[in-house]
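pinned: reference chain
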Amino acid sequence: MILRALAIFATIGPAAAQNLPPADVYVIGEIHGNPAHHATQARLVAHIAPRALVFEQLSGAQADRISPDARRNAATLGPLLDWDESGWPDIALYAPIMAAADAPILGAAGEAGDLSAYDLDTALPAAEQQEREALQAAAHCDALPTDLLPDFVARQRAIDAQFAARTLDALDRYGAPVVLITGNGHARTDWGVPAAIARVRPDLRVVAIVQGEGEPTVPGDIVLQADAPPRDDPCAAFR
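pinned: its structure tokens
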């Protein structure tokens, strides 16, 4: 469901956070590695005060290592979660999000479990399939063989369903609201985690917040903008 869109540059302030619509689930997107996006996620989590906090970046086994008395700072969480081996940006970007609420931390990654309720075997409309394949090609620097693109689309659909299932597990276990921290591609309202949740639990109120870097973004209920940090061209090696 599309509630509204807000264009806010830099970090979100207290007044903007207080304008969040009520929801059972907040899906807060990011461009991985943008410090402003992660700072905004921490501010939003502090305002929402979720009953559970679910991370794309963690498996269930990793999240289980975070005991209630563990210090939620980078020095503690980095070694505890084997973060340097994870491939994700610096733990210093994510630790403040984990520390922004006292809620249990859960992982969305890992074993998928039963996803049959999400109709993953149903073919997508042709136009959507084509658009998804084009996005996968662009995301991989147009270096993928075209015959692999349908498999990458199917994998993305399965990941969205898995993240939705893990988020709903957290909601059923701890109550509302629950926050999912994830990339913008999973936060998009048209076919990401919010759409997967709507397929199996249409009664729930889900608010998706996506964050851009000044350019048009994927669809979201709320759109926030921040400056892009300096970064190398990820496709340079393919040229």
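why pinned: Residues 149-174 form the longest helix (26 residues). The chain has one domain: 14-229.
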